[in-house]
Design goal:
The structure holds two protein chains of two kinds.
Chain A (H helix, E strand, L loop, with lengths): L15 H4 L2 H17 L3 H15 L6 H6 L5 H14 L4 E5 L2 E4 H27 L2 H11 L10 H31 L9 H6 L2 H24 L18 H32 L1
Antiparallel strand pairs in A: 1-2
Chain B lengths: L1 E13 L5 E15 L4 E5 L6 H8 L7 E6 L2 E2 L6 H7 E4 L12 H11 L4 H14 L15 H13 L5 E5 L7 H17 L3 E6 L10 E6 L2 E6 L1 H4 L3 H6 L6 H11 L11 H20 L7 H4 L1 H31 L6 E10 L7 E11 L4 E6 L5 H8 L7 E6 L2 E2 L7 H7 E4 L12 H11 L4 H14 L16 H13 L5 E5 L7 H16 L3 E5 L3 H7 L2 E6 L2 E7 H4 L3 H6 L6 H11 L11 H12 L1
Parallel strand pairs in B: 3-8, 3-9, 6-7, 7-8, 13-18, 13-19, 16-17, 17-18
Antiparallel strand pairs in B: 1-2, 1-4, 4-5, 9-10, 11-12, 11-14, 14-15, 19-20
Helix pairs in contact in B: 3-4, 3-5, 4-5, 5-6, 9-23, 10-22, 15-16, 15-17, 16-17
Classes of the chains: A mainly alpha, B alpha/beta.
């Protein structure tokens, strides 16, 4: 049913990766993405794949399940492969009829594809292994220092977590209002684009009204339960680093150091020496 | 615990330019006192000011005049606000709009977190609170997976975790099904008795406050009645003035009294009613036979009791045979005239992990002119079923015929079908969108492609049919009262001149007066020849208005028959967690107690007639 769809598709199992502090996972995600942009040769990509393996395998989220998630960006991957392949000039690799592919083009295309895949997989582990609430909790803590610059960190985190809670409710409501208007003869499927856009008014307006009503109700309920912003608020389960986090950080910095070192040392070696 | 001293609350209504156009007195000069440990019911029509009063107690609003103190603290004083909110927790109407956390446990912790308690203390309180409302097993669930009653219990736990002295229920059961209502009411009583928490229970469901210590009635911002349930429910006339009604059993007692029978008027429940019948019957016997006989001869005699039971069972058999035949005949009747569902099944999100079989092999014929009620639990498939009637959902298997034609055949005009089978969703007022009432009501007929003149004509007629005046045409639907909005929304469907009108819980959330008006409207439409299909949780409404009843469970139709037939099958209904209408239950109990009354009566009027005959 429509209400079962949750953002980020949290995969509920017990694993060391699930137990990691969300802040640790945020750090891993952030630095892993950066490291991918450093990579420019096969050794570095191999290291990146290895690290991702170390991150994914203990999470007990089936790799198959994660790869399925790539389907959504298949078009994007193909596009980048094609563009890189045909528009990179260099030594000919395939030269047949109107198809001209250079060695360099082929290599860049492969790297581009690999980079996108690693990027998406690397970034999705955190959503598979962290509940939305923990994630917002982590974000709130990780960006706590922004408060000094008058950024309403707590408020934004609260907004995100409320949004996550209300998305399924609003999706269901949307479905209901659309059906109610269809029952009154509304037609969302036929006609010109302009007509179809116009036909959405009877859906959008009630949705707005309802969202405002809900927001109003919710604000009242929160106030009645003594909510008054982030100051003086405590947590039932405050975030705490554990041994797993320390291990994860050590691994992360080893990896990062390795990648940086490879980038500096290997660039000359590859371009001038061996190749 | 709570003291209100000459409390008045006013608010300004502003016109489009932002100028004050009107000062509305939501509450006028209310004085009252509530002592610790009391269970107080607060009754009143929609818009009577009872919710405003609740918000004053929680310091969400501040009185314009007068003073309110909660546990000795003045709500005017800024410093007291948080302490007051800790002490007087509040449960609101809409279960979805008051749960903040994404899991049960997290939501329960929200209050204690706000007041900055230690982590270990919060964990303890959350565990205690969830235990008290019986939701411990669900602590890690998402609130979206819970039933309405469970959601409200989570909301109660969230308040309990603040360790309040008083809890205010602001129409917290209005959006729930009977099961959910029971859960919430039971929780309220348990907290009152076991934890000695003061309860203020706002509702317009009379049956819910029968066991309250005291009842307050608010009407147009004024406190108009106050007393024990027995005192308040003594006379229907006064309550009627305030848009309320007596509990069903009391209604019956009052009407018997009016018919000249010496019957106590302030009878509140079935047990009291039966002992009153015993008393009256014994009394008339004594009169008939002269003095000297024991007064309890009817009931105390086990022989009579046994005879009563035998006769009861015999009648049951005879009646069910006759009615079964009737149902069969109905089914045979005219495939070509009405709506026919032939082996319809429906599955949500097929072939995914969320796949869910909502309807299983449904066979159903709805004839023109019927008044049909569909009952069953939340989630039994009622809503899915009615969405098949006009082709909003297409069956995974099976066929649907209207007037002999398959509505999924190529070339069948489903938009036209939607004109013929009108569907009014639950809380239809949420679908209003246009700038004016007239425009909104015209939406349906316009979509049918009718000429403008005809569209207008139909809109006028529909608005009149739902009992609204022509002064409403140019108003915005958003500035109407709740009850008016609902009527406008129904008019929007009526304007399409449907032959079959299907309504999903059309009276949910309305007060007794509004409920009755709407149901009478449906009755009138039915008498004019319109087929009515009513999805309802309310057995009383079904008993009074429907002629045929479908009972659904787990996506199947379990029972289908005349209303009297369905209400005879108490065992089956009970197994499904459904209750009999109070009248039927009462007549049945009287029969079991040995009184020679027809136990199959389920309507108020008939019951009054039968009991008048029996008792005079």
């Amino acid at each position: 049913m429509i209400r079962d769809i949750t953002i980020g598709q949290y995969y509920p199992v017990q694993s060391p990766i699930h137990r990691l502090d969300p802040r640790t996972k945020l750090a891993i995600t952030f630095f892993y993405l950066i490291s991918l942009f450093l990579a420019n040769n096969k050794y570095m990509y191999l290291t990146a794949i290895l690290f991702l393996g170390l991150y994914i395998l203990p999470s007990k989220v089936p790799v198959k399940y994660m790869v399925k998630g790539l389907k959504g960006i298949l078009v994007f991957i193909m596009l980048s492969v094609v563009l890189n392949m045909f528009f990179t000039k260099g030594d000919p690799f395939i030269d047949w009829w109107i198809i001209h592919i250079s060695w360099q083009g082929f290599r860049t295309a492969c790297y581009a594809m690999l980079r996108i895949i690693l990027l998406v997989l690397g970034a999705s582990v955190i959503t598979y292994t962290t509940t939305p609430t923990k994630l917002t909790d982590g974000l709130e803590r990780a960006f706590h220092w922004l408060k000094r610059f008058k950024v309403p960190v707590h408020e934004v985190a609260m907004m995100v977590s409320i949004a996550l809670r209300f998305i399924p409710i609003l999706v269901e409501e949307l479905d209901k209002i659309m059906k109610a208007q269809q029952a009154r003869g509304a037609d969302f499927e036929n006609g010109s684009i302009l007509k179809r856009l116009k036909s959405l008014f009877p859906v959008i307006i009630p949705m707005f009204v309802s969202a405002i009503r809900r927001a109003n109700d919710l604000a009242q309920a929160m106030e009645a339960r003594c909510y008054r912003g982030g100051d003086g608020r405590s947590k039932m389960k405050p975030l705490k680093y554990t041994g797993v986090d320390v291990a994860a950080y050590v691994l992360l910095f080893l990896y990062l150091g390795g990648m940086i070192a490879m980038r500096i040392l290997m660039t000359d070696w590859i371009w001038n020496g061996v190749a | 615990m709570i003291k209100a001293n000459h409390v008045t609350f006013e608010y300004f209504r502003r016109d489009d330019a932002g100028n004050v156009s009107e000062i509305v007195e939501a509450l006028q000069d209310i004085s009252l006192q509530i002592v610790p440990g009391e269970f107080v019911g607060i009754l009143g029509q929609n818009g009577s000011g009872k919710s405003t009063f609740a918000k004053l107690l929680n310091a969400l609003l501040e009185p314009t005049e007068g003073m309110i103190t909660v546990a000795g603290m003045d709500t005017h004083k800024e410093d007291n606000i948080w302490e007051i909110r800790k002490n007087a927790g509040m449960i609101f109407q809409n279960p979805d709009n008051q749960i903040i956390g994404t899991t049960v446990e997290e939501d329960t912790a929200f209050g204690p977190e706000n007041i900055g308690l230690e982590s270990s203390e919060i964990i303890q309180r959350v565990a205690d609170a969830l235990e008290l409302v019986g939701m411990t097993a669900y602590y890690q669930q998402s609130p979206n997976c819970l039933s309405g009653g469970q959601k409200q219990r989570v909301a109660i736990a969230g308040v309990l975790a603040m360790r309040p002295k008083c809890i205010i229920f602001d129409e917290s059961t209005a959006m729930l099904d009977p099961q959910g209502r029971k859960e919430v009411l039971q929780a309220a009583h348990a907290l009152n008795q076991e934890q000695n928490i003061t309860i203020l229970y706002i509702t317009h469901e009379m049956e819910e406050v029968i066991n309250a210590d005291r009842i307050l009635v608010i009407h147009q911002g004024q406190l108009v009645m106050e007393g024990t349930p027995k005192e308040v429910f003594q006379s229907g006339e006064q309550l009627q003035e305030y848009g309320l009604v007596l509990p069903r059993v009391s209604q019956l007692a009052v009407r018997l009294h009016e018919n000249g029978i010496d019957f106590a008027e302030n009878v509140l429940n079935i047990e009291e009613f039966i002992s009153e019948v015993n008393r009256v019957k014994a009394y008339t016997r004594i009169q008939a036979m002269g003095a000297g006989r024991e007064r309890d001869s009817v009931v105390a005699n086990p022989d009579v009791k046994q005879k009563g039971r035998d006769a009861f069972l015999q009648e049951q058999n005879r009646d069910s045979e006759r009615l079964e035949a009737e149902v069969q005949e109905n089914r045979q009747n005219a495939m070509t005239k009405g709506l026919v569902l032939d082996q319809v099944s429906y599955e949500y999100s097929p072939k995914t992990i969320y796949a869910y079989q909502a309807l299983k092999n449904i066979n159903l014929t709805i004839n023109k002119g019927e008044f049909l009620a569909i009952i069953g639990h939340t989630g039994s498939g009622k809503s899915t079923l009615i969405q098949h009637f006009n082709g909003l959902l297409s069956p995974s298997e099976g066929h649907i015929y209207y007037e002999g034609k398959d509505i999924y055949e190529k070339g069948y005009l489903r938009v036209q079908l939607r004109g013929k089978i009108g569907l009014v969703f639950q809380y239809p007022e949420y679908q209003l969108f246009a700038e004016t009432v007239l425009e909104d009501v015209s939406f349906g007929p316009k979509n049918l492609g009718l000429p403008l003149l005809e569209v207008q004509q139909r809109a006028f007629e529909a608005i009149e049919a739902v009992g609204l005046k022509d002064t409403i045409y140019d108003l915005s639907p958003f500035e109407l009262s709740g009850g008016q909005k609902r009527r406008v929304a129904i008019a929007g469907v009526l304007a399409m001149k449907p032959e079959i009108l299907v309504l999903d819980e059309p009276v949910a959330g309305l007060d007794p007066a509004g409920r009755k008006e709407l149901l009478e409207l449906l009755k009138a439409l039915n008498e004019q020849g319109m087929t009515i299909v009513l999805v309802s949780h309310n057995m009383e409404d079904v008993a009074e208005y429907a002629k045929r009843v479908l009972v659904m469970e787990n996506g199947s139709i379990i029972l289908d028959g005349t209303t009297s037939r369905i209400f005879q099958d108490k065992k089956k209904l009970e197994k499904l967690g459904l209750e009999l209408p109070v009248t039927a239950e009462l007549m049945r109990e009287l029969r079991v107690a040995g009184h020679e009354v027809n136990p199959w009566i389920y309507q108020m009027d008939e019951a009054v007639e039968e009991l008048t005959r029996y008792l005079s």
